[in-house]
Amino acid sequence: MKTPLAWLQLSKEKARLLIALAGISFADILMFMQLGFKDALFDSAVIPHKGLNGDIFLMSPKTNSIIAPRGFARRRLYEVLGVEGVQAVYPLYINFAPWRNHVTKTTRGIMLIGINPEQSILDFPGVEENKEILKQDDTVLFDDLSRAEFGPVGVDFKAGKTIFSEVSGHQVRVGELFKLGASFGADGNIVTSDLTMFKIFPTLNRGLIDIGIIKLKPGANAEQVIKTIREKLASGDVKIFSRQEFIDFEISYWQSSTAIGFIFTLGTGMGFIVGIVIVYQILYTDIANHLPEYATLKAMGYTNLYLLNIVFQEAIILACLGYLPGLGISLFLYSNTAAATGLPIFMTLERAITVLILTIIMCCVSGAIAANRLRSADPADIF
User: Per-residue pLDDT tens for 212-242?
Assistant: First the structure.
């Protein structure tokens, strides 16, 4: 085993080796991109959830996702104030409307988040320090991480220009910028006061809210408070979530109730299968071309296990060498995709290890299938 037969066989025909590595890298890039998009979907979908300053959340049972909320009675939120351990409650309004690009005059749907400026509800950079601005009539905070299709709002605002635009035909002024980020459900976001929200949507029922946020007193037992709230609001017209349940509820919607999560999982599987086929073709051809040599080794007394070990060594060498360029190209694509879409797509150690393991498994499976060809390596055919 001191002679590196596996490497010598692979490196003998360098053109074939490079083609094999290119194929494995391509399969790895497919898996990296599909897994990256899938994680970006989930990460971006729950950014608003993580930025809400609360411990318990109320929603209508008809609401499936934060991007499509259904209202419930505001009074149900204020009934919670009498529960032991509750410090404060905050109503939150969410809606979508066309935003008019102040340069091109085109419109694009944007997500509006309505809050009471007197309350500390949102923990996004730029909101808390600028919430006093929202008290001004028809003034909004614009998400500086929104997609470029909404216009150069951030650039023009930072240049000292006064930005006026229209939301659902209602004129608003950009009072300041904040940072949230685009998602698969919303390409851009603005924060308004609840009063401005009602002016933009005059037909909204002011007795309904979209999300109820409950802040607990320091040291309060969240599980016990949730249990008490569920007993108090047992009529079934509201859902009660802990913070983690609130996040998991949104992820579950995108994972199981939409086709997007399935598509990205399928894409990862397809990349895995493509890699198996490519590596199988390379190893099978290599074994077929060296069948007389394998038969000679058998005649010299080497066992099938020894020959099989050579094939698996080749598979692992191909996996490791093909993985490295796939990882490098994926890092480049992640960076460019994040810049172009505003989605939080970046490489994680967990994903890098996952794809490496999948690559090794992919190559070993191919090696196991291709090794069946060794059975036909009969010394009697040579001598």
Answer: 999 999 988 999 999 999 988 888 889 999 9
- Of 202, 237, 272, the last residue of a domain is 237
Residue 206 is which amino acid? R
Residues 188 and 263 in one domain: no
Question: What's the rounded Cα separation, in Å, for the pair 367 and 58?
Answer: 54
Domain range for residue 195? Answer: 61-237
226: its two tokens? 């949730």
Radius of gyration of the chain (CA): 29
Can you tell me the distance from the alpha carbon of 274 to that of 276, in angstroms, rounded to the nearest whole number?
A: 5
Do residues 150 and 167 touch, judged by C-beta distance below 8 A?
no
Pair type for strands 170-178 and 139-143: parallel
Write phi, then psi, for 378 (nearest 5 degrees).
-100, 120
DSSP H helix total and E strand total for the chain? 13, 11
Can you tell me whether residue 169 is helix, strand or coil? Answer: coil
Q: Which amino acid, one-letter code, is at 89?
A: V
**Cα–Cα distance, 242 to 56 (Å, whole number):** 5
Query: Cα 240 vs. chain centroid, distance in angstroms?
Result: 25
Instruction: Evaluate whether residue 183 is within a structural domain.
Output: yes
SS3 164: strand
Is the C-alpha dihedral spanning 94, 96, 97, 102 positive or negative? positive
Query: Percent of the chain having pLDDT more than 70?
Result: 97
Closest CA to 287 of 272, 269, 308: 308
Percent of the chain as helix, strand, coil, to the nearest 5:
55, 15, 25
The per-residue pLDDT for range 7-35, each reduced to its tens digit, is 877 777 788 888 888 989 999 999 999 99
| Strand partners of residue 193 | 115
Q: DSSP labels for 69-113? A: ---EEHHHHHGGGGSTTEEEEEEEEEEEEEEEPTTT--EEEEEEE
Question: What's the domain count of the chain?
Answer: 2
